[in-house]
Amino acid sequence: MSYRMGAHRLAQALKREGVDCLFTLCGGHIMPIYDACLDEGIRIIDVRHEQAAAFAADAWGRMERRPGVAVVTAGPGITNAVTAVANAYKAGTPLVLIGGQAPLLRQGKGDLQELDALSILRPITHWAASVWTANRIAEMVHTAFHEAISWRGPVFLEVPMDVLLEPAGEEPYQPRPGPLRLPGEPSRVKEVAELLATAERPVLIGGSDLYWSEAEESLARFLEIFPLPVYLNAMGRGMLAPDHPCFFSLSRGWALREADVALVIGTPMDFRLNFGRAFGEKTKIVQVDRDPENIGQNREVAIGIWADSGPFLDLLAEQVSKILHHRNSHSWLEAVRQVEEQRRRERIPLEESDAIPIHPLRLARELANFCSENTIFVGDGGDIVSIAATVIHPHRPGHWLDPGPMGTLGIGVPFAIAAKISRPEKEVVALFGDGAIGFTIMEYDTAVRHGIPFIGIVGNNGQWAQIRYGQISMFGEERAVATKLGVVRYEQVVEALGGYGEYIEDPREIRPALERARESGKPALINVRLDDTYYSDATKRLYRL
């Protein structure tokens, strides 16, 4: 029998789980993993900060609908990744973080970068463990992937240096079954169908579980039988194309308040739904979620169902078709459409404004017109991304990426890199706030070194807009401190790193600059000077407590 190091068993186990790419920043405790990955043909993307490695693994997992992998060194390598792991935890993204550790034989003696990483990671992962012998590495890797998929979130596996170097025999590969997909209790689903049959103003708001449940076809089939206004957030964006007759966005606040029945599918009633207060007082809420703890949180529900979105919608469509032979939904849909069109018309002057400094809605409109049906859009910012989200609507699932409910800044460049690696045939466009770009602008070096082109745009209003608005509204402009940035030439940093950059002050130059960035074939950044007096409705709502 031939023996290989534990690191080889780890790489082999990753390959069996379908991993062909991992994200990392080098460190002495994890060097053997790199060597083993070369033997297995696993691509290694080395970044400039461990947080970026975990962010990229998060985005790769979202694109592939299976766990992404980040490998970081011991001590500060792990703590640098903590924010990104917490972001994945809140967003419900499957991610496997593999961390180095001091050799077992020297632990407790004060070895270099020795740290109790398990205690740090356990509160923000669904599973965290250390492997103490090379002959259990493959088993532990398989368990890590199973837990990440089952719980749909991050997990952590610590592998000490001497375990990676230890000779290891062959381990039997015993793949575990995937998680059960729950359709919901049939009797309860029938209750939902009966409630919908009596509804005059039903709406559906769907979130990330629609995407993870691969429910795009299930949603389309249900809407053929029971058309109603649909609003989408988080990873649910793109589950309906923007030209679908049931897709709406600008009328959301009005429609949720007017609805008599609301289907809340795969999204919690957190701050994004004003903790349940976004709905009318008399709205009957049906909440469907794969996490039972989300059901009824912040707002009483008429019917709560523990289920995955796709199977639930399939069963609901079947039940509705039995009960409802004919339904005239035209009047309610038309009422919603009228509100939608009115809101859209009100925004046209701003979206077409030639004013200088550039209005943020004009930038958003230019981006929406530039993006195609195959564009993957990444949003990394506060106020500017809130504005863009009202204008830019993805055409396909997985084509809108943002941090999720943590609102973590700095995801943009790592997310764009991972999205382009996952879907090299597609164009990736990333919109940054000028605060957000400062977190990971050095990752443009990663993109240049690895030949990963994408187009970045900075909406530059010289401030941390969301926070500055709150300061001014609460304390007055003369006491608004620590929120001004100044107009920084970020594009020059990207040019110095080997990418393509432009600075734009005239709105008529936005589209030509985007075209030139596309033609450059390089990682690009267009720095757009924006009006600093306009704030999004989302930002204003944050301070209406």
Describe this structure as you would to a colleague:
With 545 residues, the chain is of the alpha/beta class. 41% of the residues lie in helices and 16% in strands. A 6-stranded parallel β-sheet has the order 3-2-4-5-7-6, sandwiched between helices. The protein is globular, with a radius of gyration of 24 Å. The protein starts with a strand and ends with a helix. The mean pLDDT is 94.
Descriptors:
545 residues; alpha/beta; six-stranded parallel beta sheet; 19 strands; 16% strand; globular
Global Rg: 24 Å
- What distance separates the N and C termini? 68 Å
What percentage of amino acids are in beta strands? 15-25%
Overall geometry: globular
Main sheet: strands, sense, barrel: 6 strands, parallel
Segments where pLDDT lies below 50 for 5+ residues? none
Tell me the strand order in the biggest sheet.
Answer: 3-2-4-5-7-6
| Class by SSE composition | alpha/beta
Number of strands: 19
Mean pLDDT: 94
Helix content: 40-55%
Separate helix tally: 22
Assembly state here?
A: single chain
